Fold this sequence. Notes:
- By secondary structure, the chain is α/β, with parallel strands linked by helices.
- The protein folds into 3 domains: 1-30, no CATH class; 32-153 and 188-206, Flavodoxin domain (Rossmann fold), CATH 3.40.50; 155-187, no CATH class.
- Helix content is 41%, strand content 20%.
- The chain contains 7 helices and 8 strands.
- The strands form 2 sheets. Strands 1, 2, 3, 4, 5 and 6 form a 6-stranded mixed sheet that branches. A two-stranded antiparallel sheet has the order 7-8.
- Strand 5 (111-117), helix 5 and strand 6 form a beta-alpha-beta unit.
- The longest helix is centred in the middle third of the chain and has 18 residues, at 123-140.
- It is globular, with a radius of gyration of 22 Å.
Amino acid sequence: MGLYDSVKRCIGIHRTNNEPIHALQIGEASPMSALIAYSSNTGVTAEIADRISTVLESEGINVTLVDLKKNQPNPEGYNLVLVGSGIKMGQWIKESKQFLKANHQRLHGKTALFVSCADASVSKKKADAQTKYLDAVAEMYGIEPVSTGLFAGCFKWNKYNFFVKQLVKGILKEDGVIGVNTSEPLDYRDWTQIESWAMELAEKVS
């Protein structure tokens, strides 16, 4: 019995056609994995999470995409955890906050935070939005994120009742947006920015 056959018997490798043994036959490295956990009010943040997932998967990362309103997953075992939220009445959606509160000790060193909000589309409001919706939230839950993403949102008028429509119109008017067509969504999302951010995250874990 030759050396190869002895190794084969010990580790259970099957060789055909007398092909040489390769290191990958003994044990391939596990692919990188990412959890994207998010909460969304009108589907805007869900669409952002889905686009981020597509980018990460294109880079060979296995992605688990979870709507936190439906499930609260265990973040252990992932190389990267992205936690996202829409903004409702100036706050993260409660399910995303619940996830951070329950898992903050398991998120150290591998977590990125992202939000979609109207203020991200207004230059003079971006800095305050970064502080309020990302930096302060990270500090509140004792998380040191590897990255944060502040993304503009999209106004889906068909998702709003009359009161909310008037409120949003008032906010837009203060920002200099007048004569809004409410028959179609008003989308401020910068998909190039979102995809670039996701690509940078992929590079961090590759």
